[in-house]
Write a structure and sequence with these properties.
This protein is of the alpha+beta class. The chain has two helices and four strands, in the order βαββαβ. Keywords: Metal-binding.
Length: about 80
């Protein structure tokens, strides 16, 4: 029996607080360090944070809280 690959979910968060490119590095480093996050990318110009994660290990709320821990407010977004 082989281990099943986790089903990854893509979650988009939005924030209008990005003021400098260094914000991007802080947020990406924080999110990519969470167990269950496959990848996280900040789109500076559109204020979006796109995370691919295993929802059984890390929830959308965990992602929002992690962004808050580095000083930014983010909310789940439909797009």
């Amino acid at each position: 029996m082989t281990a099943s690959t986790p089903t990854l979910k893509t979650t988009t968060l939005r924030s209008d607080e990005f003021s400098c490119p260094s914000c991007i590095q802080k947020i990406e480093t924080k999110l990519n360090g969470l167990e269950g996050v496959e990848s996280a990318e900040v789109k500076f110009s559109s204020g979006r944070i796109i995370a691919q994660h295993d929802p059984q290990k890390v929830s959308v709320r965990d992602l929002v809280n992690a962004v808050a821990e580095v000083g930014y407010t983010a909310k789940p977004s439909a797009i």
